[in-house]
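In full, the data:

***
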Amino acid sequence: MPAGRRPSFLLFLTDQQRADQLGCYGNALARTPRLDALAARGAVFDDLHVATPSCMPNRASLFTGRMPSAHGLRVNGIELDHAELTFPERLRQAGYRTALVGKSHLQNITTVPPHWPAPGEPRRAPETRAAGAGRYGQECWRRWEDDTSFALALPYYGFETARLAINHGDDQYGDWRRWLRAQTPDADRLVGQANALPTPDLALAACGQAWRTRLPEALHPTRWIAEETAALLDRLGRDDAPFCIVCSFPDPHHPFTPPGRYWDLVRPEDAQLPAAFHTDAPPPHIAWLRAQRDAGRALKRGHAAWACTEREAREAIALNHGLMALIDDAVGRTLDALEASGRAADTVVAFTSDHGELLGDHQLMFKGGLHCRALTRVAGIWHDPDAAAPRRIGALAQSIDLAPTILDRAGLGLPNGMQGRSLLPLVRGEALAVRDTLLVEEEGQRRDFGWPHRVRMRSLLDGRHRLTLYEGQPWGELYDLVADPLESVNRWDDPAAAGLRADLTERLARGMIGLADESPYPAASA
């Protein structure tokens, strides 16, 4: 990097991607050569976990460096307060050019009523926002459709430029849908399951979680996101100012709709089931989901976890490979544009996901109310042109650490209230660890597992064990992740693990105290 020049940042973000869907994380079937090459030149985090395995809360944690209990976006359906300071806003204040392309999801994208509280249940008076009217609800797809002139109020959580793709699969809205309609008069007849190509043998089609899109590869949202990011790199690369661009793909989130040649890149018959598919003696909530499947009552059409058949798991895994190959090609297109811009030598490139995906673990799909590694562990790649050497990092790290790491690398101080820790000492080989434990929070939207109340839970990870507590349940989970990496032997009631359970429970309590919000500073002593 030229002396005196501040680093720029290019962050790739995927949606609902488990770490082992990449070749660099050991998946032999993965078609991800560009990401694997990036990993080979940078730092790869092998034990990186989310703050919560849910889209909106963890995205807010990524951008603020704060836990959901601190920034307030605790569950999908709550919108991030504009008073929260994001790392893009801190960079913008310091003279950086900031941009987001693709999925944001810091505000609600639908008008679907909340699952909690349900109609007729007691509800406290509506909360009010300090910010002005109109600054919330900006990502709702219906707002974009009803008003063809609608646009985000910029800057948007620190992004001075934002181009949105709203929703999942091939049926997305926002800036992408407007662009698509400008390309072809048949735009709305190319997307959605109602317009899909026939796939009579596809089990996931029956529940609306996969279809073969008519959308050409060149018009797919993932390709558009790459092209828009490339155009930004071309424009910003001519400027001497440093930049921060977040390139955020809505894939490989369900419904699975890889276009063209990516559809059958891997056949379901060739897909490898996760080793944890055949685990026995599951804890009560997983046993309940399996019983619902066996009785023909599995709820497959939403976003919550459900028990799947082996065929459904193989189809989802195969289609995920197609979507990840599509993302990998998009990443490659973007990295080529970075090289062409002349700014690669001073740009830090990072890659991660907002959370994982069960994708067959314990015979389950999707997410919700579970803190197994398939959901909490995500890929983490950090390529810094100034780094001394590539390295694999086995130390604990978390989504809230990304914001302070970027600000630290930019030479900016960390604001009060930011709870994450800079990972630069790990990247530079100056430390073996930056934390001994981490906590994973979760506030559920709905009553899952047949419980009479919504799921609320906390987990502690210490690098070897996972301890999970559920509100209102007399049981919990305790796994030795070294002896039992598949999380198949719950030692919660094991007398030999009683001391360990007590110690981890105390550490969880102390960790929750440590994560109490310290912002803002007091204005007076009394």
Notes: Residues 310-341 form the longest helix (32 residues). The chain has a mean pLDDT of 95. The chain has one domain: 8-113+135-435.
